Every structure is written in C-alpha cells, then in structure tokens.
Amino acid sequence: MQHSVNSERMTLYADANSGYSVEEAVRIGKMLEEYNYSIYEEPVRFDAYEETKQIADALNIALGSGEQEPSMLNFRWMIKNSALQVLQPDQFYFGMIQSVKVARMAHAAGKLCAPHMSGTGLGYLYMMHFVSILPNTTPYNQFKGFNRNLPMECPTFDLTIDDNGAFTVPSGPGLGVVIDPDFIKKHKEIKI
C-alpha cells in the first residue's frame, strides 16, 4: 500500500539520526525529494563531515545537522564547504553564546539555523529565546512542550500556545522566569 503525502499543506522534515551510509543516505534523500521534504537531518554520523558533504552535493534537499557538534571549527567547515544548509546547534550541549555565533556565521553564508532541543527542564525557554533573535531560522522548530513541573512564575508568559502554534517569548531578566527560591534551596551544589 502506498501512502501519499500532501506536502502542499504541510512542511515535512525527516531525521535519519545518523542511520545511513552515504549511498543509502542519497537513496533515501532522493525519495524525500520526491515528496517535497524540506529538511533531511543527520543522514550519517554527525562527525562524518566529508561524507555529509558528499550527500549534500548529490541532493537538492536541505541537509541539517549539528545537535551533537562540539566544535566551532567544525561548524565553520560545514558552513564554508556547504555540507549543511541548516545548522542545528544544541543550546544545552553547545551553549547559547556559541550557538548564536553559529547562527550568525550561517546567516552570513545564506544558510538557516534551527536549534536542537536535547532536554526538558527549561530547554523550551532556551529554544524560544534563541529562535526569537534569529533572522535565519527555519519556519518550524523542534518543541518538546512546556515543563510545568518546575515551580516558577513568569509574569509575561502563561505557558500556552495559540491556535496557530505560536507563543509569546518571555521577557525580563535571564530567561524571563523566576524559579521558586525554596525549590532551589532544596538542591545541593556539585563542585567539579
């Protein structure tokens, strides 16, 4: 049984999660192109830079990767060599300031940047703030939902999404939320 996809009514992204060889990634990528997928994420290992470039050269679909990338030099190489069209730094792993630098390099090269959200906790706040400052983000970004388990207040944001899937980015110091000080006091500092 064949399934048809109406890609005129939705935007489709695919994540291969480092699952393929170059040959298989190209074969799958061509199928994704047939169905008008917009982004093909991490078809080979994230650190297989030359292989990623080979795939990018063989396909028209935008390749995305970067969620596991620990090196600014490697991001720079991928941008300079057009191995990726969508850079995906993870704010938990790579940090907010470094991620902004990647986004700026990508923007200067005419490429997109979409955050990767590795964890829960306050990760959605990092993602929201990061996306809100990017002139070159993708139309849709990874969102794992609001964490309502942390005792916090946010006077500028009520943790709701409107009917169009949009929400207000909190304003104020830091991430725009105040975590209950008693909750914080219950935790112990870990010195490394």
Structure summarized in a few sentences:
The chain is an alpha/beta fold and 192 residues long.
Explain this structure to me?
The chain has 192 residues and is α/β, with parallel strands linked by helices. The chain has a domain at 13-143: Enolase-like C-terminal domain (TIM Barrel, Alpha-Beta Barrel), CATH 3.20.20. It is 34% helix and 9% strand. The chain contains 7 helices and 7 strands. Strands 1-2-3-4-5 form a 5-stranded parallel beta sheet, with helices on one face. Strands 6-7 form a two-stranded antiparallel ribbon. Strand 3, helix 3 (72-80) and strand 4 form a beta-alpha-beta unit. Helix 1 (22-34) packs parallel to helix 2 and helix 3 (72-80) packs parallel to helix 5 (96-108). The longest helix has 13 residues, at 22-34. The relative contact order is 0.10. The model has no long low-confidence stretch (mean pLDDT 90).
CATH topology of the domain at 13-143: TIM Barrel
The amount of beta strand, in percent, is 5-15%
Helix content: 25-40%
N-to-C CA distance? 56 Å
CATH class of the domain at 13-143: Alpha Beta
CATH architecture of the domain at 13-143: Alpha-Beta Barrel
Physical arrangement of strands within the biggest beta sheet: 1-2-3-4-5
Biggest sheet details:
5 strands, parallel
Total number of strands: 7
CATH superfamily descriptor of the domain at 13-143: Enolase-like C-terminal domain
The overall pLDDT, averaged over residues, is 90
Which spans have pLDDT < 50 for at least 5 consecutive residues? none
Structural class: alpha/beta
Query: How would you sum up the global shape?
Result: globular
Q: Report the order of strands and helices.
A: EHEHEHEHHEHEEH
User: Please, how many helices?
Assistant: 7
Report the radius of gyration as a whole number of Å.
Answer: 19 Å
